[in-house]
Design goal:
By secondary structure, the chain is of the alpha+beta class. Helix content is about 35%, strand content about 15%. The protein has 2 domains: about 35 residues; about 150 residues, no CATH class. A 3-stranded mixed β-sheet has the order 3-4-5. Strands 1-2 form a two-stranded antiparallel sheet.
Amino acid sequence: MTEKTALNQPVKGSPQKKKTASFVVPALLTIAAVGLAYWLLSFTGIFDGGRKTVSSLSNAYQLYSDKDTRISAQLFFGKPQGEGFTVSPVNIFASELQINRIKQLLMALTEGPKDNKAVNLLPEGTALKDAYMDANGILYLDMSPEFASNCKGGTTGEYEAVYSIVNTVFYNFPAVKGVKLTVNGIEKDTLAGHILIRSILTPDEDLSQYK
């Protein structure tokens, strides 16, 4: 007597199981592709030339609410002629958290000046990766690799790059007692061979002269 298989019971390697797999695998691949595309669009800037604006970054990281008022701050840039710093005004949102106001300000600094009255002292491509402040008022800033790799101005160039950040922070946020810089999550002895950045940094000049 020959054994019979139930009519609706698929057997190993049956067309029914293969048909199900043919639908599931493409569906999973589609979901993965959509997720990857969303991540690229939202966080990497790959589709906008690799450069995100201050506004888009602030929105992505939820650094402020649309209900927050705007406050004025000062950015430390370079003079168009000669050495030294000059300050340029900028408006940021008065976020409840101070660290979010600091992030907004430093993102604006990396964008550079909006006119020809000042020059950007940060190496090309420099971006703020993350920031946090501890209970002692020490601000930890992790900068992108370009902050070091694209710094080619010798001692003067390194000094201006480092202290445009340090001065901007201290001038606008008196609660900050020191700045610790890292590059792509790594502590460095110097920025690019000249200016020491391993220790906690503070301004080396009286910032009241810029008021």
